[in-house]
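Hi all, a correction to my earlier message: I attached the wrong file for Protein YIF1. Here's the right sequence:
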Amino acid sequence: MSNSLQPHGLQHIKPPSSKRRVPVSQPGMADPHQLFDDTSSAQSQSYGAQRVPGGLGYPAASASPQGAFLADPVSNMAMAYGSSLAAQGKELVDKNIDRFIPVTKLKYYFAVDTMYVGKKLGLLIFPYLHQDWEVQYQQDTPVAPRFDVNAPDLYIPAMAFITYVLVAGLALGTQDRFSPDLLGLQASSALAWLTLEVLAILLSLYLVTVNTDLSTIDLVAFLGYKYVGMIGGVLMGLLFGKIGYYLVLGWCCVSIFVFMIRTLRLKILAEAAAEGIPVRGARNQLRMYLTMAVAAAQPLLMYWLTFHLVR
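and the right structure:
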C-alpha cells in the first residue's frame, strides 16, 4: 500500500536497526557493566611517565638498589666504620697470635729443601760416621734447617707421621682388618704417645733443673724422627714378612738411639759443662740418665706401634 492509504495520524515507523549502540560513558564515570575498578589507566600513566624521551617506548632503567645504597652518605659512613673495625681486629689478631701459636717459629722449622731432606734421612738411617753434630748459629740465631743438617725440623716428622698412618692402613687392608675406626685408633695412639713423651721430658727437665735451649718444638721434632724407621720396618714386613720387619726395624732402632744420644747430649750435657758442673757430679749424672732414657724410649715405642701391623 501507498502512504496515502494509511489512516490519518499514523506516521511511518522506521524498523529498528540490527546494530546496538553501546552507551558511551562520560569522562570520570565508571562503566556500569564493570565489576571492579579499573586501575590500569593510572599504571599506564605512570608507565608512560618513565619512558625515555626519544626512545623506542621502553621504560627507563631504574637505579639499582646497590647504587642507591652507595649513594646514601649514612651507608658510606657505616661501611667505612666497618672497614676500620675489621682492620683493627686483623691487627689485634696478628699481634696476639704468637702468644698462642708461634707462627714465626714454625716457619723456621719448615724452612727445608730437597737436599736437606735427603741428607737428613741419610743421617737418621746411618748416623755412625757423622762427626760434627753442632748446630750452626749466626748472630746468636740458629741457621735455617736447609743450611744445616743438624738443625731440627718439623717437615720430616709431619710427613713421616702421615705416611706412617697410610702405611698402617695398607698393612691392615692386606690382612682384611681395615676399618676407619681402627685406622683412627692407630693415629690417635701415635699422637697420644708423642704427647706423653713430650710432657714427661719437660717434667724431667724441670725436676733436674736443666737450663737448656731445648724448646718444646725441638722435642716434637726429635721425637718425630722415629716414624721414619717405623715406616721402613712396616714396609719391609709387608714385602718380606717378619724377618724383613725385624731386620729393618732393628737397624732403625739402633740408628735412632745413636742419633738421639749424640743430638740430645749437646742440648742437655753441654749446658752442664758451660755451667761448670763436674762430669761426675750428681746433677750431671741425672742429666746423662735422662738423655739415655729418652734415647732408649724411641726403639721401644717404634716396636710397640708397629708389631701388630705385621703378621
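Sorry for the mix-up. The first helix runs from residue 40 to 49.
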